[in-house]
Amino acid sequence: MAQTAQAAQAAQEHGFLSPTGVEIAFLLVGLVTLGAAVVTVTTRQLVHAALWLVVALGGLAVEYLLLTAEFIAWVQVLIYVGSVVVLLLFGLMLTKAPIGRSPDTDSANRPVALAVALAAAAALVWVVVDAFRTTWIDLDGAVQGSTEVTGSILFRHWVLPFEALSVLLLAALVGAIVLSRKKKEGER
Amino acid sequence: MHLAYPAVLAALLFCTGLYGVLARRNAILVLMSVELMLNAVNLNLVAFDVWLRDALHAGQALTLFTIAVAAAEIGIGLAIVLMVHRNRGTSDVDRLRETAEHPHEDPDTDPHEDPDTAPHAHAGPHDEKAEAAA
Prior knowledge:
By secondary structure, chain A is mostly helical. Chain A has helices spanning 2-13, 21-42, 46-66, 70-94, 110-131, 147-156, 159-180. The longest helix of chain B has 31 residues, at 58-88.
């Protein structure tokens, strides 16, 4: 309780009009991330969408670093930027995606989608800002997400979900191979 | 740092992904938008974990699990998209309407009245099932 009061007091001291250095960095990287995400969902060139997705996911990795979650930042770079985007690019190539501008990347319900997204954005931002206006994250002190801390809690408290997840990954691997295998002639 | 910054960024990223899922036509672009939405959730989890200073670090553990599940999802999703592209020749989600019923279809090809054309009308879905079972 005392800690909550202290945090509230800290938030009072740190107004939105006098941001700290970390906040300025977070804001700038966040603008780049959001811009890249918007270009990803609006560009008419399919391969460019995948490349802008790299910028958005890399920006998010920097945001994790600024939030002192180092390990997750490097996992993000390894898995998302390293493998997921490569998989997406392979998918684009294998489905013979047109290089260059394609006129029909957006379907006919684009205005409806825009309305839904803007309404959801307005509602979510309003609620979130109203709820967490005075909440202050204390980034000083012990690092929250170093590799040591994450490994320790992962293998001390989260072992069973971790093992279940490895089984899930194996099942997904087998499923993907079965689905993408070319069927031989006459084979059922 | 104010918690509002990461929370607002996560909300905006989520809505960008929502727009992409609803507006895009190519199935792979829809998968990219799903990735954006998952990443918005991850950012929220990390920010709240750092704010709450949870002893179990549930937020960061769940973020790692979400990343692994997203990797599995993208693998399976791309395999399905490739299979659909091989069978139908397109990966545009709004052209894959074979599973929907067509109430205004040509009345001559009604399978209940004309048994000769019925097997032809169902050839595509049967091939699909055989492929899935193989």
